[in-house]
């Protein structure tokens, strides 16, 4: 789009990170969703991978934490939940790039490996948790951290959370955070099924629905047969 990041209400440190990443102009989802989220309104976005949704929620989350004067709490202030470890790793990678000039600490949490390393990390006064639901709950139940100070909640690929059977875990976590209107909530999903919409209304604060139509639903380079 013609919208430049420099025209949005983003801190200079974030603009520097964007500049280093080579991002100057907003993609359609960024153009539509960022101005809303930067004003602390919840966003439920229908957007697929490849649209720039990750930078959308990361920038809004970072800006909210920058504006926050409660920087000294010892527990996470933002949580980003993804259905798969691959997605969590990718989000973490993008987060490190875009937050290069900020002083934020992340814990990347997912199942299958590095149990102790991740446990130590989440105990170490981090600002943002990025991860998959199962292990986040495991650490939560061990009281390695709490969710009392969560100001930003992101649910990525919400439809896949249902497909993979994580929805009870998601609800468990959401019920342990401050109430929806005390947080900035962002949900992204490739499809806005009835279940996803219901989840959005139940756990978000009157979200603005933003829909980006994909040009093609399936990747052009893949031949499919059934
Ligand atoms: P995502 O949909 O979040 O997986 O992003 C798709 C790809 O687009 C990633 O490789 C991003 O690094 C890149 N990207 C996101 N936003 C922009 C932007 N505004 N300008 C250029 N590239 C971007």
Label this structure with key terms.
single chain, alpha/beta, 9 helices, binds adenosine monophosphate
Distance between the termini: 37 Å
User: What ranges have pLDDT less than 50 throughout 5 or more consecutive residues?
Assistant: none
Strand pairing plus helix content: what structural class?
alpha/beta
Side-by-side strand order of the widest sheet? 3-4-2-5-6-1-7
- Give the C-alpha Rg: 17 Å
Total of helices: 9
Order of helices and strands: HHEHEHEHEHEHHEHE
Mean pLDDT over the full residue set = 94
- Characterize the overall form: globular
Strand content: 5-15%
What ions, cofactors and ligands are bound? adenosine monophosphate
Number of distinct beta strands: 7
Major sheet details? 7 strands, parallel
What percent of the residues sit in helical stretches (DSSP H or I)?
Answer: 25-40%
Descriptive notes:
With 226 residues, the protein is α/β, with parallel strands linked by helices. 40% of the residues lie in helices and 13% in strands. The protein is built from 9 helices and 7 strands; from the N terminus they run ααβαβαβαβαβααβαβ. The chain has helices at residues 12-21, 28-37, 53-67, 85-98, 115-122, 133-141, 158-163, 167-174, 194-203, and strands at 43-46, 78-81, 106-109, 128-131, 152-155, 184-189, 208-211. It has a 7-stranded parallel beta sheet, with helices on both faces. α5 links the parallel β3 (106-109) and β4 (128-131). The mean pLDDT is 94. Adenosine monophosphate binds next to α3. Adenosine monophosphate binds at residues 23, 25-27, 30, 49-55.
């Amino acid at each position: 789009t013609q919208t430049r990041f420099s025209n949005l209400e983003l801190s200079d440190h974030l603009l520097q990170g964007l500049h280093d990443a080579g991002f100057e102009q907003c993609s359609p989802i960024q153009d539509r969703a960022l101005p809303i989220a930067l004003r602390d309104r919840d966003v439920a976005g229908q957007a697929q991978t490849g649209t720039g949704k990750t930078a959308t929620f990361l920038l809004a989350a970072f800006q909210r934490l920058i504006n926050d004067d409660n920087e000294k709490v010892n527990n996470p202030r933002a949580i980003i939940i993804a259905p798969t470890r691959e997605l969590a790793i990718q989000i973490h990678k993008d987060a490190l790039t875009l937050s290069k000039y900020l002083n934020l600490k992340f814990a990347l949490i997912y199942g299958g490996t590095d149990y102790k390393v991740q446990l130590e990390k989440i105990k170490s006064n981090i600002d943002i948790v990025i991860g998959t639901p199962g292990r986040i709950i495991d650490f939560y139940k061990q009281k390695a951290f709490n969710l009392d100070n969560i100001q930003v909640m992101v649910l990525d690929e919400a439809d896949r959370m249902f497909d993979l059977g994580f929805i009870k875990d998601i609800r468990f976590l959401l019920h342990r955070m401050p109430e929806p209107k005390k947080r900035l909530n962002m949900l992204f999903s490739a499809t806005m099924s009835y279940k996803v919409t219901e989840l959005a209304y139940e756990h978000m604060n009157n979200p603005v629905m933003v829909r980006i139509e994909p040009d093609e639903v399936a990747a052009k380079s893949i031949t499919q047969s059934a």
